[in-house]
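Reviewer 2 asked us to include a model.

Predict the structure of this chain.
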Amino acid sequence: MRLALLFLCFVISTGLPAQDKTFTIRVLTYNIYHGEVADGTINIDMLASIIKEVNPDLVALQEVDKHTQRAGGIDITDELARRTGLKGYFVKHRDFQGGEYGNAILSRFPVTDVDVLEGYHSRPSIITFAFALVEIAPDVEIVFGCTHLTTREDDRKVQAHQVRDYYVADRNRAPMILTGDLNAEPHHDEIKMLLNEFAEADTTWANTFPSRPAATKKIDYILYPRTSEWTVKETRVLCRAEASDHCAVFAVLEYAPSSGVR
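Predicted model (C-alpha cells):
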C-alpha cells in the first residue's frame, strides 16, 4: 500500500534544472532510539546538538516516537524540528503506547509531497518507507528516501526489493538519495542487490552500530545513484556513546543534473 501525503527518507529529480548548475546537499541519517540516550532518559537537546553539529539540509530519522508513554508524551519530530530550525515530517509505522511510532524527515528545503510505501511484513508489525519530494532550488525537485528495514532476514530481503523496485519502476531510475538503518551489513545479499543501483557515500565503510562501547558493524547508509550526476565531497560517522545506540552518518553530496532530465 502506498499513500500520497503532502509533506519524505530517497532523492529524485523531476524538475527542469538549468544546465551546468551544481547543487550541494548535506545529508544526515540517524536512528535515534525513540529519543532515549545512554543514561536511560529521553534527551532531545542532546540529539538536536548532534544534528546541528553538521548543519544538514536533509535528515532521515529512524525509531521516532510521537506522544508515546515511553517518550513522555512529546512529539519528537516537532521537538527536533524546533531545536534545529528545520521543518519536520513524521511518517507513522503503527500505534504504540498511546501514541505513534515511525520514521521522520527534517528538511531545510520545501517538501511538496511524500509517498509512503508499506513494507512487506510476515508478522503483525507494520513498517513504512517514506519518499519525499524536495525542492532544492526553483524548478529542481529531488526525492529523499527514509527507510528502516526489519531485523528479520527473509522479510528484509523482500523490503529491500520493494525499495529497489520503487526506484527502478515507480521513479524510472531518476536521481535519488536513499538513507536509513537497513539492518544489514555490506556483505549481505540485500545490500549487494541495492549496490547494483546505488553507491555508498562512505567509501571507508565505517561501522555504525552499536555506538557503545564501540561500533562493530555497518548497518546505516547514505546511498545515491551510480551516475555521473552525483559526487561525494565529504563523509563522517558520528559515534556518540552518550546518545543513541546507533552512530549517525553524514555526507555532503553534489548533484549536477544532466541536460536530459528524466
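The two ends are 25 Å apart (CA to CA). Confidence is low (pLDDT under 50) at residues 1-8, 10-18. We have added this to the supplementary material.
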